[in-house]
Amino acid sequence: MNTLVLETTLGGLNIALRDAQGRLWGRSSTAMRSSSLLHGLLAELLAEAGLQPAAIGLLAVSIGPGSFTGARVAVAVAEAWGLAQPHCQCLGLHTLMLVAKAVIERPSPLLEPLAEGFRVLTDAAGGMVYSQDFNTLGQATRTADCVPLAEGLATSLPIVAAALPLVEVAVHLDGLTPTALLAAVDDPSCHAPVAAVYLKPLAYRERQPA
What we know:
Elements: E1 3-7, E2 13-18, E3 24-29, H1 38-49, E4 58-62, H2 68-84, E5 89-93, H3 95-105, E6 118-125, E7 128-134, E8 145-148, H4 149-153, E9 159-162, E10 171-173, H5 178-185, E11 191-192
Parallel strand pairs: 1-4, 4-5, 6-9, 9-10
Antiparallel strand pairs: 1-2, 2-3, 5-11, 6-7, 7-8
Helix pairs in contact: 3-5
């Protein structure tokens, strides 16, 4: 099956494509407002693979938690794609689980040994972070949450940060590879309905230190 993955919730853009023969292609951007580049990069990727949109049998998109705009873009693309290509299965992927898959796929010496697992943090703005813990297989051991940065950093686990600059942690991930994106597709525990995940409390500013 030809599988397409779009990640738009970490402040950038990551695209992966795997054809029915298992060949991989990828595109990424860390530019501001990367979502505006989605159409052009996607067309370029499909052309390189020699595929038409109708040939995609599975579309997976990141649903958050993460960039509100990015999550909305991903959901909108999946909904439009499903209407235009009714035969294509569409599914959501939890963003923090995508980051965990990248950790497993590209282990760092700073995270070895991961006897107790690791924590993933991503930026939630306003001094907040999205946080979730994972075991050594990249499986979630705690539900995702939105907490103040100090609370997210308060752990004995090694910390992996994505889209969270200027914070001292064990490892910073600067992007998600096609292999990591597709690993999440192949793991049913990462799957979710195509609906944006919003964890940030409406009164989050009230939780900030005075």
